[in-house]
Structure formats: C-alpha cells, structure tokens
Amino acid sequence: MTGEFEPLTQSVRRLIDVTIRSEVGNAVAAEAKAHIDRAVELLSADLMPGSYGMRTADDGRPTVLGNVLIGARNPVAPPLVIHHEPQGSVYTEFELGAAYEGPAGHVHGGVCAMILDHVLAAPAHQPGQPAVTGTLTVRYLRPTRLGQLRAEARVDRVDGAKTYVVGHIADSDGATVEASGVFIRPRRR
Amino acid sequence: MTGEFEPLTQSVRRLIDVTIRSEVGNAVAAEAKAHIDRAVELLSADLMPGSYGMRTADDGRPTVLGNVLIGARNPVAPPLVIHHEPQGSVYTEFELGAAYEGPAGHVHGGVCAMILDHVLAAPAHQPGQPAVTGTLTVRYLRPTRLGQLRAEARVDRVDGAKTYVVGHIADSDGATVEASGVFIRPRRR
C-alpha cells in the first residue's frame, strides 16, 4: 500500500527542481500551477492526520517513508540510502541539485550538517536500541559543490552509554566537511 | 520577473505535504501523478542551466530565491524569514510540518542543525563582507515537536577574523536545541 507513491514522489522531486529553475512566462507558470493545485486536491481526498511517523508495512516491518532524509515518500529527501559495511561503518552516495543550494553553485552548509547528523547516527544505532544524538560538531573545510557526493561515518569509540562517531562528506577531490558526534544509548530498564 | 513563481512555489509546498500524507488509492494517485508530470513538462520548456545561484532583481539588488532555507522559489524552504534586531541579534519564527520529520511526530535533528547553521550565520555577516562558517556545534536538549517554532542567534564575541555566535531553536516550552558557531571573515585585500 505504499509502493505506488514512490513514482509520484519522484515526479514531485523533478517538479521541485524545475520550479526553482524555470524561466517560462506568467501564462505557462499559471497553467502549471493549475495542474499542481489539481494534484493537491486529488491527493487530499484522503489524508492521514499529522505526519507520516512510523508505520508498519504489509510484511510487519516498520517503515519511515516520510523521513526528510531517507523517506521514499518524502520529496524533500534525496533520498539517502545508507549502506552498512561488515565492520560497522556506513556510507551513502547521493546527488544534490538546485533544491539544496546555499552559496551559488554550492550545497548549503546547513544541508551538509543535516546529512552528517543522519549519517553519523547510523553506526551508533544498535538493533532495537536506537541512540539519541547528544552533540554534533561540523567543521567546514571548503565549499561543497552541487553534484555527486559521498558521506561516510564510523564509530570512533564507545564509553559507557556514549558512542563517539566520526564522518565526513566528500566530493571527487576529497573531504569537504568533517563531523564528529556523541550519541547516547538510553539505559535498558 | 520572479514574483509570479511564488504562488506556484506555495502550491508545490502543499503538494510535498500531501504527497507524504495521502491515503488515496492507486488510480487517484496515478491521476495526480499525471497532473504533476504535465506541470513538470510545462515548466521545463525554458530552464536556466544549473542552479538558481544569485541573480539580480529588476531593482538591481541580489536575490537568492533558490536558497534551500530562505528561497521564495525553493519549495524545500519553509521559507525562513530572518529578522534583524537593532542590537544585532536575529530571530525567525516558522512552522515545520510532515516534510521535515525524523522521529515520529518530531523534527529531524538534522533539520534543526540545518536551520541553526543558517540562523547563526546571519548575525556574523556584515554588509558586503560575508563570513564563512568554520565550525558549528549543535547540542540536542530534547526532541523538537513538529509545529510552530522559533530560532534566534546573537554574536557572543569577536576575536580578530573570528566571530563567535550562539543560538537555539525553541518551542512554546523553551529551547530544544542549542548551537554555537565560529564564523570567519575573509581578510579584506
């Protein structure tokens, strides 16, 4: 019951991009707006209250399709796909276009921080025992150009309930932004 | 030549929200997708190459309408409106809905970091002399519920080329996330 929304979401991602980059005249923009408003009306005929939250898929597994970074149903999400490596580190490869711009031609520094928050949390989580972010520190080495990027993270050390994680975002020339994070695993009761 | 795209962008923001929250059946979702694809086609008839960047408005002032946080033409942007107070501090009041979700019902911690990156940079900038972010440290005090929020920032101290800024995001019960940042003003040549 969720898969049919993924092609729709991809279409909305394309729409976000061309909404920013279009140079058509007023009449064409108005015609496009009419189509968008009709789509909103159609989709609004049956809306869940509030946000997507965590929902159970047909196979019983929890899904977070509305997540702003990994959600297949959230058009804001690139979406990131996090790969877990056998040694416990994680990486993700993704492309950021016009929708994520800060300085001209570059990824907004805040977007880099947002992605690093999510990627650094990934190796800190244990199955059934999620960690909460305590502190995240982001160091900007140089501007990050829009385009194809990679982020990775690994656990640096564990000290009691605290897990220290390090990671970075890189383009083809190497790291552009580094980060370290402290994640706290709530005590089991 | 840019104002006509703002109502269109608002429509796309509504579309992002209902794309996440809709529970309509396959046939209606497909009909909505057809309208979205038609809008994409119309807007793509004339596209600027690359991203929006910084463009000059009719009155000669630079505009950053594509910015992921403040861009009036970027549907991903809430958009933030940054208010500068006479003493140099800044604040912004905004609402975050389903599109910015991380943990169920709550703002993604990375979104908080992204917003704080932008808001803390604001008081560090001087007219004609923008500062670049060196380091941003974010401390998560408690979960931030989706809904109406406020962020603020002020310069803590200036030491040579470095400007130290502090700030936070708050809901109606007080601060949920605190941040400090070091911003570097490139030397004048």
Automatic annotation (TrEMBL), chains A, B:
Enzyme class: hydrolase
Thioesterase domain sequence ranges: 105-177
MF annotations from Gene Ontology: hydrolase activity
Keywords: Apoptosis, Cell membrane, Cell projection, Cytoplasm, Fatty acid metabolism, Hydrolase, Lipid metabolism, Membrane, Transit peptide
Example of a GO cellular component annotation carried by this entry: cytoplasm
A GO BP annotation: fatty acid metabolic process
UniProt cross-references to SUPFAM superfamilies, sorted A to Z: Thioesterase/thiol ester dehydrase-isomerase
EC number per UniProt: 3.1.2.2
Membrane topology summary: Peripheral membrane protein
Catalytic activity: decanoyl-CoA + H2O = decanoate + CoA + H(+); octanoyl-CoA + H2O = octanoate + CoA + H(+); tetradecanoyl-CoA + H2O = tetradecanoate + CoA + H(+); dodecanoyl-CoA + H2O = dodecanoate + CoA + H(+)
Protein's cellular compartments: Cell projection, Ruffle membrane; Cytoplasm; Membrane
Similarity remark: Belongs to the THEM4/THEM5 thioesterase family.
Protein name: Acyl-coenzyme A thioesterase THEM4
